[in-house]
Structures are given as structure tokens and as C-alpha cells.
Amino acid sequence: MPAALMSRALPGEWLPAAAAASVALVLFTVPWMLPLAGSVITFASPLPLALAYLARGKGTGRKALILAAVAALALSMAAGPPGGSYYLVYFLVMAAALGELGVMGLSPSWVVGSAAAAAMAASVLVLLAGSLAYEVGPWTLWKTQWQGEMAAMVQAYRTMDLEPETLRQLEEGLAAVGRIVLRLAPGILAAVSLVVAWLNFLAARRIGRRLSPQADGAPLNLYRTPERLVWLLIAGGGFMALGEGWLFWLGANLVLVMGVLYFFQGLAVVDFWLRRKNAPILLRTAVYLTVALEIYVAGLLAATGLFDMWLNLRRLGQAKPSGSEE
């Protein structure tokens, strides 16, 4: 390529990549500035990188990923905490999987599932590497890291000038939650990874289709959990009903993960019929907000997804599919 053409091409390749990397870096570092709200906001870290792939192609996406990785790794090393590297790898691997697989024309369920699995695998590898480096067991390292995060959360509450009794109740509640989280760690990691990958993919698709027609794809409201996976749910329920100790918690982890998959299917059923009946956008928004804010509604959707396996609530194969998932 002649030098003149290369000089004109570089800004078009690197400027969007740098912008995506910068936004991802800001989202990654939000928890350092907002300990409570930032812990939720930072889950959007893969979004700008995945969007760079969907809207501008693999070249821009890969450049954005490299820039974000270099900048975030340098910042994490300067800050020092090992946990920073753990989350950095998790989000970068998820963003890479969402981006690379998202532009390959694979089904949304494969993209989301593979991105969640890749991020989980990267997290486990980082945990194993950390346990070797610090010469402690992986479980001990995870427990130490989680307890450190809980302590940071308690300290954040202490800065709010709460009443002593209220603060004591919060500390006791967090301690109880911490014990449950440690036992449900594998299931929580899988469930959170699926939800985070799904939300980032959904947002990237919605924003990306406005920036580039290449970002469009198959509707998400046709999603169905593979029927044979229902045996994992049955096994999990059996372990919880009949088992004790580690067997009970194994079942709880299985039920948690399968509950997320059937929640996705239940939400797809609701979205399918809302769109098929041409429900106004305000009604659809109200339904989605209710799902996000009310855990009982989420449980009801998971049950709906489970029954859809046998009742075919969307009449798939009998009715024309909805043309949009969002």
C-alpha cells in the first residue's frame, strides 16, 4: 500500500478502536471510583469492544481489544491488587469471544454460551495461576479474594454515616451472604457469565444495527434450551432434595445455572408474544423493568421457559417467527 493511502487508512482503523478501548477502560475502572454502583456498571466493559467488532469489523475490533488489554493491564499492575488482573482477563476474554463469534454468523445462543464459557475458563486459569504463584490452594485464594471484596463493601457502607445498629445488621447480612456465595461459587460464576454475555451481546446488537447493517442477525426471541439439558435440572433438584453437605450444594449449583437458561427461554416467550401482539414499547419496557427489579417475576419466567419445552407456547413451526428480538 502506498504511504499516502496508508496514512489515510490508519485513522479510520485506529480512531474507532481507540474510542472503544477508552470506553471499555473507563467501565473497567468504575468500581475503583464507585465501590457499590461501579460493581454493577463494570459488567458493561465488554460492550464497547464487542460493538467495535459488530459495527466496524474484525480489524477494528481486534485493534480495540489490543489497546484495551495493554492499557488495562498496565493500569492494573500499577494499582497492584491481584483481583484487578482476574476481572481484566475475564472481561477481555468475554469481549473477544463476543466479537469474534458475533461476526461469524453463528446463532446468538452459541455466541452467548461460548463467550460465557470462555470467560469462565479464563477465570479458572487465572485462579490456578494465582494459586501456583502464591503457593496456596485455588479455593483458599478465591476465598481470600472474596473476603477482601466483602471487607471493601463493608468499608464503603461505613463511610455513609449509618446508624451503628443498621451497620451491624448489614455486616451480619453480608457475612451470611458471603458464606452462601462461597458454596455457590461455580454456579454463580456460570450464571453471572451467561447473564453478562447475554446483556452485552443484546446491547451490542441493538446499538450496532443502528451503526451498521452488518450488525443485524437472527432474533433472540426464538431461543430454546436444548431439551436434553432438562436432566441436569432434574438431577440438581434430586441432589438438593435427597443429599446433604457437598451433594446438596452441587445440586444447588446445577439448579442455579439451569434456572438462568430457562429464564432466557421464558423471557424469549414473553418477548415473542409481546411483539406478535404489537404491544406498545412503553408496555414492553415496563415488563422488562419489572423482570429486572423483581426476583419473583424472574422465577416465574424461568418456570415459563421450562414449560415451553413441552407446551411450545410460541407455537414455533406453526406461526411465523417474530422479526426482532429487541
UniProtKB/TrEMBL annotation:
Keywords, sorted A to Z: Membrane, Transmembrane, Transmembrane helix
Spans traversing the lipid bilayer: 12-30, 36-55, 64-80, 86-103, 110-134, 180-203, 229-249, 255-274, 286-307
Lineage top rank: taxon: Bacteria
Signal sequence, start to end: none
Protein's name according to its UniProt entry: DUF2232 domain-containing protein
Originating organism: Desulfoferula mesophila
